[in-house]
Design goal:
Elements lengths: L2 E5 L4 H12 L3 E6 L13 E4 L5 H10 L4 E4 L6 H6 L1 H22 L3 E7 L22 H20 L2 E7 L1 E3 L17 H10 L4 E5 L11 E2 L1 E3 H16 L5 E5 L5 E2 H12 L4 E5 L8 E2 L4 H6 L9 H14 L2
Parallel strand pairs: 1-2, 1-4, 2-3, 4-5, 5-6, 6-11, 7-10, 8-13, 9-14
Antiparallel strand pairs: 9-12
């Protein structure tokens, strides 16, 4: 039985990852400082409360366990905050990730799965976005993700660590069995914000811009179900274990849904109406961000199971209503 270290495993994506790994029979150790995650979201395996800034803790952890792979979900993710406080993002997302990689080198752990982001691409030159699209991030968050991708290539050349970088577009949805879901504080993602309006936890939802070059004038984004996202991580590990080499993959449904389509779907699924406030465009919001996931489908054999927007929203709605 292979043993996996899940860093940031108490957060939204990490907790779903831990559940899926356990269901597949892997041994799991979760490391999380609980700054943005929740202890009760870790549904099994061993849990260690700690930070990847703590190099002594990392060394002790790797001395106690023989890990077959490491999955890293412990980055800060708020674009606006990264602009206001870039030091926080460079310190955690870059410096602390290097701490983790250094202890992997020391203990000869060779397989690393990295949560990257579509933010590395910046304003898209074309859509859908494939892996060859120029990387031109427009905020510190995106730059920290790109720096780590570049560092991983150097670490492979020098130390033999192999990695799979998964560039997420918009992770969405919740555990189909209702045990886990999205509960960021503050919440910044569109679908849970709309669901909070539908459930009455929020007074209204704001739509930023209605005059984009899209069929209904609102921005189009690519939403990927959280379980499909986690499935790609397991396939990425197997890819490395089968000696197929380091790789980068864009992960999305390959189809986009507009903000208005998401609002309509929430109304349809929830049976609730809610107030929508139309506001001006936000700076830096591209009209379309859609992934070309052909490479992941062909090389990893990845096939999204929950690509339907109503299904993504239904699972998230079930979670939202469980919180009331």
């Amino acid at each position: 039985m292979k043993k996996i270290l899940v860093v940031g495993g108490a957060g939204y994506i990490g907790s779903h990852m831990v559940k899926l790994l356990l269901a597949r029979g892997y041994l799991v150790v979760t490391l999380d400082n609980l700054s943005g995650g929740f202890r009760d979201a870790v549904l099994g395996g061993d849990f260690v409360e700690g930070d990847i800034a703590d190099t002594q803790l990392l060394d002790s952890l790797f001395s106690q366990h023989q890990f077959d792979g490491v999955m890293h979900f412990a980055s800060f993710i708020q674009v606006g905050e990264s602009v206001d406080n870039p030091a926080k993002y460079y310190r955690n997302n870059v410096s602390n990730t290097l701490n983790l990689l250094d202890v992997m080198v020391k203990h000869e752990v060779k397989a690393f799965i990295f949560s990257s982001s579509a933010a590395i691409f910046g304003e898209p030159d074309y859509s859908p976005i494939d892996e060859q699209h120029p990387t031109q991030p427009i905020n510190p968050y995106g730059r920290t993700k790109l720096i780590v991708e570049q560092a991983l290539a150097d670490y492979e050349r020098a130390y033999g660590i192999q990695s799979v970088c998964l560039r997420y577009f918009n992770a969405a949805g919740a555990d189909p069995e209702g045990e886990l879901g999205e509960r960021h504080d503050p919440e910044t993602h569109l679908i849970p914000l709309i669901l909070q309006a539908a459930s009455g936890r929020r007074d209204s939802i704001k739509v930023f811009g209605g005059d984009y070059d899209t069929p209904d004038g609102t921005c189009i984004r690519d939403y990927i179900h959280i379980v499909d996202l986690c499935e790609a991580h397991i396939l990425g590990l197997e890819h490395l274990w089968n000696d197929k080499g380091s790789a980068v993959f864009n992960l999305g449904n390959g189809q986009g849904f507009s903000v208005q389509e998401v609002i309509d779907a929430v109304r349809r699924v929830s049976g609730s109406d809610f107030k929508v406030i139309h506001d001006e465009r936000r700076a830096g919001d591209p009209a379309r961000l859609v992934a070309d996931s052909t490479k992941a489908r062909e090389m990893l054999g990845w096939a999204p199971q929950y690509a339907d927007l109503d299904t993504i929203i239904l699972h998230a709605w079930n979670w939202e209503t469980s919180l009331r």
